[in-house]
Design a protein that fits this description.
Blueprint (H helix, E strand, L loop, with lengths): L1 H24 L6 H16 L15 H18 L2 H9 L1 H25 L4 H8 L7 H7 L4 H26 L11 H6 L4 H23 L5 H21 L9 H16 L11 H28 L4 H8 L4 H10 L4 H40 L1
Length: about 375
């Protein structure tokens, strides 16, 4: 009985935070559920009203909320790695590889600028500028000891800047008077419930569970996210290649919304007043570095469009350090190659989540060794 009473305040906290996500989702932003929930949870955590009866804790609500949300997100991303994504990568591997490398290089430069010109530590600076998504990067940053609150703030600001600037800029550059109406048959089938889809859903959930355990054994950062994503992607890719047909699971949009609420509430619950002291300079520098990152991506997209048969619209949206949903929707509405865009965006997130965290930890280790050597020499 006591455990139930102790659990209910956290449920109430998540529900109230999700209400904030619902309000922001009314603006039409696909990431509105995540950002709205995060902002509401942060607001509640900072004010800490007594009516919530949630214990004051800088570590936030129980980590199980974050793990469930990350697992749902991992299953969603893993499903996107299907036969079409593999074939598109095979046909355009050189261009996509260059795009991924440049994305990583420019994010590292942006993080280096933030680290050198602000008071943030190395890990927080690099994770704050990593173009891996608001849903995934803060959770990974927490596992390696970075400041999750600052990472979330800067990541949210980057998403806002990309959503505001990229679609608007493309709207001015391209005429899209004949707006597409999204009537994709495969996507429409996902909203219909069929009994045989439950078997595929169960298979993906099991693959995510196994992937999580493998991720823990291999010491992946955020194994509930990365492990589940790799597990589902492996099962999905192997079966689609063997059967020559795409797997369709029962995975309604409500589950994606729920994952955003759980992740947003978990991250927002870790906010406290102390983390906002003296970050004016940090926010200013991070804004400038984000603008520089967006401009660099556009410049690279322009050169790619010159040397390939890709349009600047498609290359620009594929390069943009924004979310999968936002950039893919923009590409579809403006008649770009949205299949190519979603492929590059998914692979970018996979690459960032797998490659950058170990690299950041290595840089952090080398920095600590350097400081230790300097201290001993003195």
């Amino acid at each position: 009985m006591k455990k139930t009473m102790g659990f209910l305040p956290y449920v109430w906290f998540v529900i109230l935070s999700g209400a904030g996500g619902f309000l922001l989702s009314l603006t039409g932003l696909p990431i509105g559920w995540m950002i709205g929930t995060l902002l509401t949870a942060a607001f509640l955590s900072i004010l800490h009203p007594r009516v919530l009866r949630v214990p004051a804790n800088e570590k936030g609500i129980q980590k199980q909320w974050l793990y469930i949300g990350q697992c749902m997100l991992g299953i969603e991303l893993g499903q996107k790695v299907n036969r079409s994504v593999v074939s598109i990568f095979y046909e355009n591997w050189s261009i996509i590889t260059i795009m991924l490398i440049l994305s990583v290089v420019f994010s590292l430069l942006s993080g280096l600028i933030l680290w050198k010109w602000s008071k943030l530590d190395m890990l927080t600076s690099f994770f704050a500028t990593a173009p891996g998504g608001l849903s995934s990067i803060p959770g990974i940053a927490e596992d390696v000891g970075a400041n999750t609150g600052i990472v979330s703030i800067i990541q949210a600001m980057r998403v806002f800047l990309v959503i505001i600037t990229v679609p608007v800029m493309m709207s001015f550059l391209y005429d899209h008077s004949e707006i597409h109406v999204f009537t994709d048959t495969a996507a429409a089938e996902l909203t219909k419930f069929e009994f045989n889809q439950l078997a595929i859903t169960s298979l993906f959930v099991f693959a995510a569970w196994i992937g999580h355990y493998i991720g823990k054994l291999l010491k992946f950062p955020a194994p509930w996210l990365i492990g589940s994503m790799i597990g589902v992607a492996a099962v999905n890719s192997i079966i689609t290649l063997l059967t020559n047909s795409n797997l369709v699971a029962w995975w309604p949009q409500s589950l994606i919304i729920l994952s955003q609420i759980f992740i947003g509430a978990s991250i927002g619950s870790r906010f406290h007043k102390k983390m906002f002291i003296g970050i004016n300079r940090t926010l200013f520098i991070s804004t400038l570095s984000t603008i520089g990152l967006i401009m660099s991506m556009f410049l690279c997209a322009y050169f790619v469009s010159l040397v390939t048969n890709l349009s600047f619209l498609t290359a620009g949206l594929a390069f943009a350090p924004g979310g999968i949903a936002e950039m893919t929707t923009t590409a579809f509405v403006m008649k770009g190659d949205f299949t190519f865009v979603v492929t590059v965006q998914v692979l970018r997130i996979v690459a960032v989540c797998l490659i950058l965290p170990p690299f950041f930890r290595f840089l952090y280790y080398m920095e600590l060794k350097k400081k230790e050597h300097s201290y001993q020499s003195a």
